[in-house]
């Protein structure tokens, strides 16, 4: 877009540059890519650099730094991919990295990548870069998608008003990439002096402020030293006006003097208004939208994020998913059970050594097989949960739940953590990192084990299928909702002892809806289900063998009631007798600490069902009320080892995992008693 | 578009979606997009649900969880 | 569709009737129809809200009807696979309501598209 009549001049200057390039070996011209998140920065980066790239970290932070090189004509470029940001300030790690990079000016050119569909959001950053006097090329990307959606981008007003080169690109179709390369090449070779700089015309009041600010600052040598980067091109006063003194920390006396001269609040408002007007002008002159302003997404969200209806629809969605899980999976599950039973029968006839026979048939096939029969339920559940997640529905539900969470004193991203917790508590606990308030975060970490993770599913399915098969989905729904309530109430309760948190307001941007493809859903389901299978071959197998050994010795399977396993369970019998749980139930719970699925596999072994069904054996031992109490106990009690280890690493102390151990068990025991009592009345 | 009013409204309500603001102040899609960076300068962070991606990097179950390699899918369990 | 109040009324009354008919059959469908009815009823409120308020409630309640039918069809499909042919008793109410929902959803979508085109025409004039 920078095609002017000075093309021949550029060419001459490029020749002289080539010479200097050749003598100064490896003299790469450093350029960088900046832009809002998700505009195609990395896609363009990959197209430009191809395989010649490496990944590192920015110093001091965990933000990823991608660097690559590419050659165009006779020049070699070093390209840096900056993190996605909306503004250059210090509000987040990403922004700080980007700001520090830009302000240090160790580069020639910055390519600002904007998304043609969201060009409006990039304008702020564009102005900020111009205010910092950076050499910018504006690449308006995803132009293919814009054309598809009837959005026309007219770059000439931007080119004329701001005096910068603009290229329309598409990382998908490759459109405009050649032009971008050419513009980069020409722009980098026309040395700084020949580039026409844009002077931004501020309103007179702002100009006056900038001038006075700079004059005043020249009296402060410490400002000159500490803020030399900001002082160039008068960016310090502008930055101060926009973002205040929070991350600048200018000297107090300086601020005082400034405040006597200006009404800073008014000035700030005026500056913001000027910027908004300027951006609005640019937007209205360079974007032509065909069609009016409605989208199906807004229309659906109008109801789906409604305070009351939204929650009801979420409950409906979960109810549907659970019903489908039970209804569709049952026949398949029965088939699997048949297969395991006949395998067990066959092997019990073939293996002559008694202890090996018992190990294989009762331990491995009975135990691990007892868990594996739930493969259909687990995969079908993941499949439909995947549908909710992939379609973009789940974030909406999470947003609603979070609003409720707010009335429980939780703020910030608690909702996403809880939703993650339904999959696995480990990433859920890690995700609390985004919560700034330390105490609030701790309360949530300690409460997240109450989020019913998918490892508990086999236990629920076994017990619900055995005792509540006519209302299976409803009972599972009840468990899930109780689980959410439990996390919320628990963190509210814990915060009481920790102190109140301040509420930082924030805005949620909900993702687009999309129709999940069957392939994506299959991948999603497999990835989650695979984890279950791996556990079955690993920790569940090991735990099952240990349980078998404990139940087989010391009297070689003659009397299980005096085995080591019975000894463990009997320790707790005084506490659980009134709930109707005997030592076998207790032993299973103890080993469930290793992994929740082990509860099921150990019941298979301990009830020594062999040919008969575990359901039948359980029905002989438990009443529906004690089964329901058991379900709720499993929901709440001790998290698995992985979760405890994560709590330790996230809180940096053994105190909290140990606390969790006792806390969850006590709460679980209390809930089990309450449920048993209430259940005794109703069922 | 009155920035001060919008700012006040958000601070009162703490947690809103972009749609809430759009409907309350009768803004067009284009205006909402312009507004986004301004909100950030007001100290009102914009949270996108895509942020969960970053969690994968630190998850100890990372090895057994291949979700992060499928870029278009969500995150780990 | 022009007369949104009538559509909302049809949806809410019809779903209420079907809910009652399902009470002795299937609790899930009772919940589903109740939810659809409530969603449609909410559409009457809030005259001063955004212009698509009524459309939104029509669209979502019919979408819920469609999903409920999809649920029923999935169940039928699976019992076909597990060859329990004798056990297949399609819930006729759900299917009737689902088909009505599809018609309403498509009609409403076309109506919104028509508005869009009219606005475009006005703009270009
Ligand atoms: N249609 C279209 N999609 C694109 C284009 N460039 C990037 N994308 C998609 O936009 C998404 C975000 O791209 P990415 O490069 O990761 O963005 P970044 O966050 O700015 O680095 C990806 O799903 C890309 O496939 C483009 O030119 N056209
Ligand atoms: Mg990127």
Automatic annotation (TrEMBL), chain A:
Family per record: Belongs to the TRAFAC class TrmE-Era-EngA-EngB-Septin-like GTPase superfamily. FeoB GTPase (TC 9.A.8) family.
Chief place of localization: membrane
Membrane-topology annotation of the record: Multi-pass membrane protein
Q: What is the lineage of its organism?
A: Bacteria, Thermotogati, Thermotogota, Thermotogae, Petrotogales
User: Which residues are in the FeoB-type G domain?
Assistant: 28-190
Superkingdom is Bacteria
> What name does UniProt use for this protein?
Ferrous iron transport protein B
Where does this protein hold Mg(2+)? 46, 49-50
The protein's job, in short, is: Probable transporter of a GTP-driven Fe(2+) uptake system.
Q: What PROSITE patterns does the annotation carry?
A: G_FEOB (PS51711)
Q: Where in the cell is it found?
A: Cell inner membrane; Cell membrane
MF terms from GO for this chain are: ferrous iron transmembrane transporter activity; GTP binding; metal ion binding
Q: What are the transmembrane regions?
A: 308-329, 359-388, 442-461, 467-489, 536-553, 625-647, 659-682
Which residues make up the binding site for GTP?
35-42, 60-64, 81-84, 141-144
UniProt entry tagged with the keyword Transferase: no
UniProtKB/TrEMBL annotation, chain B:
Q: Report the protein name in the record.
A: Transcriptional regulator HTH-type FeoC domain-containing protein
Automatic annotation (TrEMBL), chain C:
Keywords (alphabetical) are: Membrane, Transmembrane, Transmembrane helix
Query: SUPFAM superfamilies recorded for this chain?
Result: MFS general substrate transporter
Q: Where are the transmembrane segments?
A: 5-21, 27-44, 56-80, 92-112
Q: Which organism is it from?
A: Defluviitoga tunisiensis
Q: Which InterPro entries match?
A: MFS_trans_sf
Q: What is this protein called?
A: Uncharacterized protein
Domain of life here? Bacteria
């Amino acid at each position: 877009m920078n095609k002017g009549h000075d093309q021949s001049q550029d060419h001459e200057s490029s020749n002289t540059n080539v010479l200097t390039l050749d003598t100064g070996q490896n003299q790469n011209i450093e350029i960088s890519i900046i832009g809002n998140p998700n505009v195609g920065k990395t896609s363009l980066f990959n197209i430009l650099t191809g395989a010649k790239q490496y990944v590192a970290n920015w110093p001091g932070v965990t933000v990823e730094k991608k660097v690559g090189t590419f050659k165009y004509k006779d020049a070699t470029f070093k390209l840096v991919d900056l993190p996605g940001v909306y503004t250059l300030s210090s509000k987040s790690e990403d922004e700080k990295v980007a700001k520090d990079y830009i302000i240090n000016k160790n580069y020639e050119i910055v390519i600002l990548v904007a998304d043609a569909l969201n060009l409006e959001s990039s304008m702020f950053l564009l102005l900020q870069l111009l205010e910092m006097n950076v050499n910018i090329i504006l690449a308006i990307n995803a132009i293919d998608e814009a054309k598809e959606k009837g959005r026309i981008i007219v770059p000439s007003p931007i080119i004329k008003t701001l005096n910068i080169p603009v290229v329309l690109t598409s990382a998908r179709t490759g459109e405009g990439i050649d032009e971008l390369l050419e513009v980069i090449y020409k722009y980098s070779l026309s040395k700084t002096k020949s580039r026409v700089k844009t002077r931004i015309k501020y309103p007179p009041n702002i100009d006056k402020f900038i001038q006075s600010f700079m004059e005043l600052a020249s009296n402060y040598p410490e400002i000159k030293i500490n803020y030399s980067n900001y002082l160039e091109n008068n960016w310090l006063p502008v930055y101060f006006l926009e973002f205040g003194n929070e991350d600048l920390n200018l000297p107090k006396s300086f601020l005082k003097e400034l405040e006597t001269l200006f009404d800073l609040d008014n000035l700030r408002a005026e500056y913001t208004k000027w910027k908004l007007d300027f951006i609005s002008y640019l937007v209205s002159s360079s974007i032509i939208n065909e069609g009016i302003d409605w989208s199906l997404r807004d229309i659906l969200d109008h109801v789906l994020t409604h305070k009351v209806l939204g929650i009801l629809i979420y409950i409906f969605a979960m109810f549907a998913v659970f019903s489908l899980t039970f209804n569709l999976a049952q026949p398949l599950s029965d088939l699997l059970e048949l297969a395991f039973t006949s395998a067990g029968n066959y092997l019990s006839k073939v293996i002559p050594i008694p202890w090996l026979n018992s190990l294989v048939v009762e331990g491995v096939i009975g135990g691990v097989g007892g868990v594996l029969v739930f493969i259909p339920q687990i995969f079908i559940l993941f499949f439909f949960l995947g549908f909710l997640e992939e379609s973009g529905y789940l974030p909406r539900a999470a947003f609603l739940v979070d609003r409720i969470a707010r009335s429980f004193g939780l703020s910030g991203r608690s909702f996403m953590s809880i939703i993650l917790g339904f999959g696995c508590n480990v990433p859920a606990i890690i995700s609390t990192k985004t919560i700034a308030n330390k105490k609030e975060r701790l309360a949530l970490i300690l409460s997240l084990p109450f989020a019913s993770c998918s490892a508990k599913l086999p236990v629920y399915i076994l017990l619900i299928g055995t005792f509540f098969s006519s209302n299976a989905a409803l009972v599972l729904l009840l468990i899930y909702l109780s689980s959410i309530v439990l996390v919320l109430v628990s963190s509210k309760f814990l915060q009481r002892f920790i102190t109140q948190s301040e509420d930082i307001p924030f805005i949620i941007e909900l993702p687009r809806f999309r129709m999940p493809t069957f392939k994506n859903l299959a991948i999603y389901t497999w990835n989650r289900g695979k984890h279950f299978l791996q556990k079955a071959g690993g920790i569940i197998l090991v735990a099952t063998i240990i349980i078998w050994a404990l139940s087989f010795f010391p009297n070689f399977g003659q009397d299980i009631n005096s085995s080591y396993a019975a000894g463990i369970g009997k320790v707790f019998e005084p506490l659980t007798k009134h709930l109707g749980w005997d030592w076998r139930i207790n032993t299973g719970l103890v080993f469930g600490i290793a992994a929740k699925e082990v509860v099921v596999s150990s019941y298979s072994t301990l009830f020594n069902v062999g040919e008969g069904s575990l359901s039948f054996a359980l029905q002989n031992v438990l009443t529906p009320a004690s089964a329901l109490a058991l379900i709720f106990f499993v929901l709440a009690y001790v998290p698995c080892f992985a979760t405890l280890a994560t709590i330790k690493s996230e809180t940096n102390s053994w105190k909290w995992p140990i606390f969790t151990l006792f806390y969850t068990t006590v709460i679980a025991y209390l809930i089990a008693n309450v449920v048993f009592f209430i259940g005794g009345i109703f069922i | 578009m009155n920035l001060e009013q919008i700012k006040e409204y958000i601070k009162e309500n703490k947690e809103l979606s972009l749609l809430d603001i759009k409907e309350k102040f009768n803004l067009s899609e284009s205006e909402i997009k312009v507004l986004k960076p301004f909100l950030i300068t007001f100290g009102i962070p914009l949270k996108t649900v895509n942020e969960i991606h970053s969690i994968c990097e630190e998850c100890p179950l990372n090895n057994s969880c291949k979700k992060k390699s499928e870029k278009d899918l969500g995150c780990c369990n | 569709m022009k007369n949104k109040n009538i559509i909302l009324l049809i949806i809410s009354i019809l779903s209420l009737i079907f809910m009652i008919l399902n009470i002795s059959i299937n609790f899930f469908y009772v919940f589903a129809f109740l939810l659809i009815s409530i969603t449609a009823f909410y559409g009457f409120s809030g005259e001063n809200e955004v212009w698509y308020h009524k459309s939104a409630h029509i669209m979502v309640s019919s979408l819920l009807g469609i999903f409920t039918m999809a649920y029923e069809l999935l169940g039928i499909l699976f019992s076909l696979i597990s060859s329990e042919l004798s056990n297949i008793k399609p819930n006729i109410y759900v299917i009737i309501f689902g088909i009505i929902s599809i018609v309403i959803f498509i009609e409403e979508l076309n109506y919104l598209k028509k508005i869009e085109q009219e606005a475009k025409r006005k703009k270009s004039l």
